[in-house]
Structures are given as structure tokens and as C-alpha cells.
Design goal:
The protein is of the alpha+beta class. The chain is built from 18 helices and 21 strands.
Length: 522
């Protein structure tokens, strides 16, 4: 028995030593272990009046609103899909696409089909994906990249493409692979851009039968789109963007075979229910009928972190700086929506200061049951009572909601994924930036900052919709200072003394995670 015990200790020691050696070698050899960017510099194509269908379609609206950018809010998942699909279908010059996640699922395949069709028409396609979620996709990515009009690059990629080698590299390069590109942008012909919180996948477009995200994008037309193109070029030409052809060792699948598979899936029985819902949506009909009515705004800016954010200590160029300044400038109201909300000491003190100045501060975030990352909830829970004592209003989204007639969720399961805030019903932000340490310090983020009362009111209404009793619990402290969750949607209203809808094991997990020094990684 004693021999077995010492043998176990020896194995554990050897394992820890291996991990330590890997990490130290990674620190010493970081630059040599990181794959090199070998792609030729590339830039957004010059705009030409009347060259493409999108050029011609937007010309009258842009002429009627000189210097202004058209903005539409996309809170419905079907509209989020439609905006991307239709803009790809109408593109005649270029598609520049930048995403943290592109899932190998139904909606991922449907949009890949639109991208491939555009390339077949002669549209130049540049696709930049974060490599953290691209494991196992090399054959399909290589196949797309093999098309003469498609070039695909991966952000901060792994040398080892799959299996145990990828796991060892993750340990060895732990300090560098921890920095990911969380940006989301879909740019068509340099004229139209979709920027916001949605990745590419079923749960982002109301297509998942189990759980769908409540998310938000802005669809932009006109001058500000050039800013998105400039950001894309900065990332595309950075040393963090590596051509997939320089990484993948597997031979690509036959291109025509992949194209046939995409067409077959779109015509298949599994895709039909979603395509029927899509065809019936008011948003899709408006896109196809050219009946969109955007807000035309002068003060709108697409903003982003620098592509090599983690290699510089100069925070003046980081996205957190202008966003913090906007919130600090609140005079009457600051309404925040963040699925992963870990304010930290600085953020908590900042919100407390706003309340002390008479600003009404509200936050909508995920409940424990709705949060897909329990570790993040442990970070949020650490500050919850303090925020309530300081006068911040908290609402937590329910994991199960009623399906409304517009098909917002497409299922009874829901999780918040919107990242936005509105200040004084006058200005706001929509993008990929969570109010947590990972978005502040580790990931690159982007989004849209605007100043317009009408669009701000629409964003405020989205906050109020998410905070509705049928979608969220109101969190408060009772007379004895204990946390309580109120469900106004029931008659009579229900009060919960523990995290509602969350199992005992999940609650215990959050408690244990809360003991660990991991807040900086959340």
C-alpha cells in the first residue's frame, strides 16, 4: 500500500515537472514556437460607384444622407442570419469576414454556401478566424482556401493542428495562446457591415432546438463601414494572422465535392424548417424587398483593440479606454447588458461612484442556470451583494423562457449573449466586449460607438425587454441582507432563496471556483 502511494506521488511529481518544463520552454522560446505570418499584405478593394448591386442599391440613400451612416439594430437571430446571407448574395466586389467562432453546423454551412457562391461569381473573399475554435476543421478550411477567390487566415494559431500535440502546445504556450481574437465583423463590398456580438452558429441565429442566445448586431451602411475595413486590414496584415495553407498538413477535400455537400444540405429535409422560418421573417422580407429603414447618423464609429494588444502595455489604444470614458460620463442613466459580467474592484467602484452621483445604474446578465461558463458566474457572484448594496439594479436572464411569436429564441432554452450599454438615452455601444477581465486585458474586441437619441432609445428598449419579468429575475437583498431572486411573471410572484433553476452540484461548483485565484482569466 505504501509503495503504491509513493508511486502515485512520483507520477504526480513527474507530471508537474513535465508541465513546468513545457511552460518554461514556452516562455523562453515563445517567438520561435509561434507560427510565422507568411501571407502577402492585403487591403480592402477600392470602392467604385455603381460597380455592384450593393453600390447601386445604396447610392440613392447615401446621396439623400450625405456624410451619414445608416444603422439598423438586429436583435432577432433570424435577422442576424438574413443580413449576412443577403449581403453576401448581393456582393459583387468583396467579402471580408472576421470571427471568433464559425461552427461546423447548419447555419455555418448555409453561410459558407453563400460565401462559396460569391467566390464563384468572382467576389474576392478574405476570411479571418480565431484558431482556438477551429480544431478539426482543417480539411474544410483548406478546401475553401484552395478556391482562387478565397483566402483564409487563422489568428494566433497552433502549430499542432489536433490531438495530444495541440494540448501540449496549449500548455507550453499558455501565456500566448491565452490571447484570442473575439472580434465579429461581416463586410460586403466595403459598403455594408454587420458588427456586434454574434458568431456564426445555430445558437446565434435562432436555429438551435435546445438553447439559443439572445444577441445583438448593428447593420451599417455607408461611410463608417470604411472603419471596419481598416480594422480588418490591420488584423489581416498583423503577425498574428497566418495563412491556413502554411499550417494545415492535410490535403483539402475536393472543392466541387464540398460545394455539392453544401448545396445538398441546404436542400435537405433538416434545413427546411429553418429556411421556412427564415422566409417568413419580416426582416428577411424587408431585406429582399429593399424596404429597410435605417437610422441615419453622423456620430457613429466602429472601434477595436489593436491586433497585437497583448504585446503592448500602452492601454491608450485599447477599447476599454473609450468605453470606460463613455460610462464615466453618464449624468442620469447607465444601462448595461453583459452575459459575462465580472466588474472587478475597479469596475465595481466605478459603478458605485455613478450611483453616488445620482446616476441610475442597471445591469442585465445571465443567471447561473443560463450562463454557459460557470467559472465566469463565480467571478460575478463575488461582487453581486456589494453591487446591490451600492444601489446597482441587477437582472439575471432565465434559462427557460416562453417562445414568443417572432421566434426570437427558436426554443424554450435561452442564454444572454448581447454585449451593449446605453448612456443617458443619448449614446451607446454594441459589440463583442464583455464587462469582464478577459475582454479588458486578454482578448481583442470590437464594436460600434454611436451618439443618436433615436438609436439610443431603441437600445434602451432592448435593455428593458431583456429585464422583463418573463425573461429575467430581479435580484435584490431582503430585509436581513440575504440574496433573493424575484419572478414577477408568476401569479403570485415567486421568491427564490438560492440560484433559481440551478442544480445543487452547479451551485457547489460555483462556490468552489470562487475560491480559486482565476478572476484575471474570466
Amino acid at each position: 500500500m505504501r509503495k503504491a502511494f509513493w508511486r502515485l506521488l512520483r507520477l504526480i511529481g513527474i507530471g508537474l515537472l513535465v508541465v513546468l518544463v513545457l511552460v518554461i520552454s514556452g516562455v523562453l522560446l515563445a517567438d520561435r514556437l509561434t507560427p510565422r505570418a507568411t501571407g502577402a499584405p492585403g487591403h480592402a478593394l477600392a470602392l467604385e460607384d455603381g460597380q455592384t448591386e450593393i453600390d447601386r442599391e445604396l447610392a440613392p440613400m447615401l446621396a439623400a444622407n450625405p456624410g451619414k451612416t445608416g444603422v439598423l439594430m438586429l436583435s432577432d437571430g433570424l435577422d442576424g442570419f438574413s443580413s449576412r446571407a443577403v449581403s453576401a448574395r448581393r456582393a459583387g466586389r468583396s467579402l471580408d469576414l472576421q470571427y471568433y467562432i464559425w461552427h461546423d453546423d447548419l447555419t455555418g454551412h448555409l453561410l459558407a454556401r453563400e460565401v462559396y457562391r460569391a467566390a464563384e461569381r468572382g467576389v474576392r473573399v478574405r476570411l479571418l478566424l480565431d484558431d482556438m475554435n477551429a480544431e478539426g476543421l482543417d480539411p474544410k478550411l483548406m478546401t475553401l482556401d484552395a478556391h482562387p477567390n478565397i483566402e483564409l487566415r487563422l489568428y494566433n494559431p497552433f502549430r499542432n493542428r489536433e490531438g495530444i500535440g495541440r494540448l501540449f502546445e496549449m500548455v507550453q504556450r499558455v501565456f500566448s495562446v491565452n490571447h484570442r481574437m473575439h472580434n465579429k465583423a461581416w463586410i460586403a463590398d466595403g459598403r455594408v457591415a454587420v458588427v456586434g456580438g454574434r458568431n456564426i452558429g445555430e445558437e446565434y441565429f435562432s436555429a438551435n432546438p435546445e438553447v439559443n442566445f439572445r444577441d445583438l448586431d448593428l447593420l451599417l451602411f455607408g461611410p463608417a463601414v470604411k472603419q471596419a475595413s481598416t480594422i480588418f486590414d490591420d488584423y489581416w496584415n498583423s503577425t498574428a494572422a497566418v495563412p491556413v495553407a502554411a499550417l494545415a498538413r492535410k490535403k483539402p477535400e475536393r472543392m466541387r465535392e464540398l460545394a455539392a455537400q453544401l448545396e445538398s444540405e441546404a436542400a435537405g429535409i433538416d434545413a427546411q424548417p429553418y429556411l421556412e422560418r427564415l422566409g417568413q421573417s419580416q426582416g428577411m422580407r424587408a431585406y429582399l424587398a429593399r424596404e429597410l429603414a435605417p437610422h441615419w447618423i453622423e456620430s457613429v464609429q466602429i472601434v477595436s483593440d489593436p491586433p497585437l494588444k497583448w504585446k503592448s502595455d500602452d492601454r491608450s489604444g485599447w477599447l476599454v479606454e473609450p468605453l470606460t470614458a463613455m460610462l464615466k460620463g453618464a449624468r442620469q442613466k447607465a444601462l448595461l447588458i453583459s452575459p459575462y459580467f465580472v466588474p472587478g474592484e475597479e469596475g465595481s467602484n466605478g459603478l458605485k461612484g455613478l450611483v453616488a452621483r445620482g446616476v441610475s445604474v442597471g445591469v442585465v446578465t445571465n443567471s447561473l442556470a443560463a450562463n454557459d461558463v460557470p467559472a465566469v458566474h463565480s467571478g460575478y457572484a463575488r461582487y453581486r451583494e456589494r453591487l446591490l448594496l451600492d444601489g446597482v439594479s441587477l437582472h439575471e436572464m432565465k434559462a427557460r423562457t416562453q417562445v414568443d411569436s417572432s421566434g426570437v429564441f427558436g426554443s424554450s432554452g435561452a442564454s444572454l449573449h448581447t454585449k451593449a450599454f446605453v448612456v443617458d438615452d443619448a449614446r451607446g455601444f454594441v459589440g463583442s466586449f464583455n464587462l469582464d477581465p478577459r475582454s479588458v486585458d486578454l482578448n481583442t474586441e470590437m464594436g460600434v460607438v454611436f451618439e443618436d437619441a433615436e438609436l439610443a432609445r431603441e437600445l434602451r428598449n432592448e435593455y428593458l425587454r431583456l429585464a422583463r419579468p418573463d425573461l429575467s429575475y430581479w435580484v435584490y437583498l431582503d430585509g436581513e441582507g440575504r440574496l433573493r431572486w424575484l419572478d414577477w411573471s408568476e401569479a403570485p410572484p415567486l421568491v427564490f432563496g438560492t440560484e433559481p433553476d440551478a442544480s445543487l452540484m452547479r451551485r457547489l461548483l460555483v462556490v468552489v471556483l470562487g475560491w480559486l485565484p482565476i478572476e484575471s482569466q474570466l
